[in-house]
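Supplementary Text 2. Reproducibility record for the structural model of the 286-residue chain.

All settings were left at their defaults, and a single model was retained for analysis rather than an ensemble. We include the record here because the model underlies the residue-level annotations in Supplementary Table 4.
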Amino acid sequence: MPIDAAKALAAEPRSAEISWTRKDVLLYHLGIGAGVPATDPGELRYTLESRLHVLPGFATVAGAGSPDVISGLSMPGVDVDLARVLHGGQALTLHRPIPVEGTATATGRIAAVYDKGTAAVLVMRTHVADAKGPLWTSDAQIFVRGEGGWGGDRGPSARHEPPAGEPDRVVERRLREDQALLYRLSGDWNPLHADPGFARRAGFQRPVLHGLCTYGVTLKAVVDTLLGGDVSRVRSYATRFAGVVYPGETLRIRLWASEGSVRAAVSAVERDDAPVLADTVVRWAP
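Retained model, structure tokens:
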């Protein structure tokens, strides 16, 4: 069996040094659509080094592009075809604001392996800390088609009850035709997002956008719409990737706000509001 759950869970954590510069931060921000309009003072906080702050979603690419997913696939007990792999969900907990430049140690391990019958789900947990202490903790849910059915733990349901009532805010974000090509420069080189032939082999009509790009676009919309652009207030952010996004589409982001948090649902406008992010929650400090 390509996935040996016991071996994966028993494997020792792996640690590696990661580092990033303000150029990496700027590139990530451009990759999720920052800078429109280019002279807007709010956008300049994402695109001008003299005013730069770091959107917490940058944690998903800091140092290695897509470290959680790629690292998870290289762990002992895991041997799968990349064409069968999808990023099923992502959770991020911020311990303090991410510095514009830094060096840190990322320590990761497989925290759970679930048998969903027709697929397996690996949870790759990564703790990142620098000389001053913990920075963030992330959980990547790695969905591997065709690798379930061994009778293992099915795991908890990731689905929440839908938010009640009409959303408090609705935000739309148009994606560039070359959004995936720009985003992948932050380090996620999976050919699914650029190579039409590979995308077809994986079952898609054409290359799809990185789920973590949609993740970043959505978090930026929440920060800009509900937090006055203050990235330092974000404490956690979790989502389930419910469907694909194609570059050039428009994201419709529905927001249901409450005290200290917001629930979001994201869909693709041009495909009759096909869901792309679900069970999405951002929590923040006052």
